[in-house]
């Protein structure tokens, strides 16, 4: 029992209200208080991404064709989706969350679960709510409980712009009288099935014998019954911060060819650059690892003048380290590691020099190809790089 206590956590579900529309209203004060729809144009059969609560009063909803939304609410202001901006704002919000805990599961651009030490959740939620309001001027709803399911339901019940709790001990009084539709994960088909057998409230569902539920829901029955009872043991799927990323290669036979080593360094740099860009990270240091024929191993690192995610810069640094520390051939292993990782900026397309920009564009194209066709096809002709001839 004591052991179970000690691992118990409070769980917060933080979900921004009408997220894209709230960002637009924040940044254009004349839109505040107005029905705002963010989505595609009716001319191109666009759909609503989201809408302000003012527009929801007219029945406008996410995923509805914009044409239909404008019929329901002719006075609405329609704005295009500015994903880049919403993504930046989302990062600022998540950065506030990370002041409180490293245990963060990112669900979507505007939704995350946070794990807090048991007993600290509600106070943290109030503080987060205040900071997001004061620092970012955005409305946020936070549901607080002991598991993900109840935290999510707590947020649904608290929306908009509030902190709400649904503790396990309150399940009978607060949850059981509510309709089964409120249970996340129960789709309209399941709800209809339940109604067909006379189950309308979550309390009725919680009290239904398992074997009866199994007749209708098969292997999902237990999960459904446990949800109705407020039980959910799913752990947080947190993104633990990576401290470094590395690539290394041990040769089947010791290798004495310097050109071949450089080619491998190039491949490794390309792979590291790709992995950094895919995570939106920049690296501050590059480390070269070398193992010699006698198994002795060295690592040598260099701090870069500025953080980077460029294949070329990682390659050049690794190659220079190799030139300085290569010792005597042959080599048995070569590796490159990048560390000192931090969040990257959006591509600095405007303030970088022409050639750096070309390099960034090239890297982006390569990344797309790599996603499409995998690694193997993609080894840029090394000759393009024209490495300086060694003395
Ligand atoms: P949600 O959190 O589902 O919606 P919301 O934040 O707009 O409103 P709520 O107050 O109910 O939380 O989704 C977050 C964002 O994701 C939303 O602002 C826009 C985007 N989105 C779409 O682009 N299409 C969709 O169908 C949905 C549901 C959301
Ligand atoms: Mg939301």
Explain how this protein is built.
The chain is an alpha+beta fold and 391 residues long. It has three domains: 9-14 and 85-228, 2-Layer Sandwich (Alpha-Beta Plaits); 19-83, MutS, DNA mismatch repair protein, domain I; 244-385, Dna Ligase, domain 1 (2-Layer Sandwich). The protein is 41% helix and 22% strand. The protein has helices at residues 2-7, 19-27, 53-56, 66-72, 83-97, 121-136, 148-158, 171-175, 188-196, 202-207, 210-217, 221-228, 258-279, 311-325, 354-373, and strands spanning 9-16, 36-39, 48-51, 77-79, 104-108, 111-117, 140-145, 163-165, 244-255, 281-292, 297-308, 331-339, 342-343. A five-stranded mixed β-sheet has the order 5-6-1-7-8. Strand 10 (281-292) and strand 11 form a beta hairpin. The longest helix has 22 residues, at 258-279. The protein is globular, with a radius of gyration of 27 Å. The chain starts with a helix and ends in an 18-residue tail after the last helix. Bound molecules: thymidine-5'-triphosphate and magnesium ion. Residues 15-20, 49-50, 62-63, 109-111, 159-160 line the site of thymidine-5'-triphosphate (TTP).
């Amino acid at each position: 029992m004591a052991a179970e206590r000690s691992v118990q956590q409070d769980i917060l579900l933080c979900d921004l209200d009408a997220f894209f529309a709230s960002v637009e209203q924040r940044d254009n004060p004349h839109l505040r208080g107005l029905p705002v729809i963010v989505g595609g144009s009716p001319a191109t059969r666009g759909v609503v991404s989201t809408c302000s609560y003012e527009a929801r009063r007219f029945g406008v909803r996410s995923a509805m064709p914009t044409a239909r939304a404008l019929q329901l609410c002719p006075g609405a202001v329609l704005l295009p989706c500015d994903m880049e901006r919403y993504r930046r704002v989302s990062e600022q919000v998540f950065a506030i969350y990370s002041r409180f805990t490293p245990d963060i599961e990112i669900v979507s651009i505007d939704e995350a679960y946070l794990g807090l030490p048991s007993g600290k959740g509600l106070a943290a939620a109030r503080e987060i709510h205040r900071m997001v309001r004061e620092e970012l001027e955005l409305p946020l709803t936070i549901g607080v409980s002991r598991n993900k399911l109840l935290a999510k339901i707590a947020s649904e019940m608290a929306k908009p712009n509030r902190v709400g709790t649904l503790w396990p001990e309150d399940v009978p009084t607060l949850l059981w009288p509510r309709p089964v539709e409120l249970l996340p994960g129960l789709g309209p088909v399941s709800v209809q099935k339940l109604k067909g057998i006379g189950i309308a409230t979550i309390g009725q569902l919680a009290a239904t014998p398992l074997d009866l539920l199994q007749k209708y829901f098969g292997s999902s029955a237990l999960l459904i019954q446990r949800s109705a009872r407020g039980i959910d043991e799913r752990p947080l799927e947190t993104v633990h911060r990576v401290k470094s990323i590395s690539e290394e290669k041990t040769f089947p036979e010791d290798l004495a060819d310097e050109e071949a080593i450089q080619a491998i360094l190039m491949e490794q740099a390309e792979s590291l650059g790709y992995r950094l860009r895919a995570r939106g990270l920049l690296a501050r240091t590059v480390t070269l690892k070398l193992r010699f024929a006698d198994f002795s191993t060295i690592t040598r690192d260099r701090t870069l003048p500025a953080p980077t995610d460029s294949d070329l810069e990682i390659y050049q640094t690794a190659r220079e380290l190799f030139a300085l520390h290569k010792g005597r051939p042959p080599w048995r292993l070569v590796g490159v590691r990048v560390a000192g990782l931090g969040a990257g900026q959006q591509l600095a397309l405007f303030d970088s020099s022409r050639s750096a920009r070309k390099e960034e564009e090239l890297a982006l194209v390569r990344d797309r190809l790599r996603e499409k066709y995998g690694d193997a096809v993609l080894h840029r002709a090394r000759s393009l790089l024209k490495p300086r001839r060694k003395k």
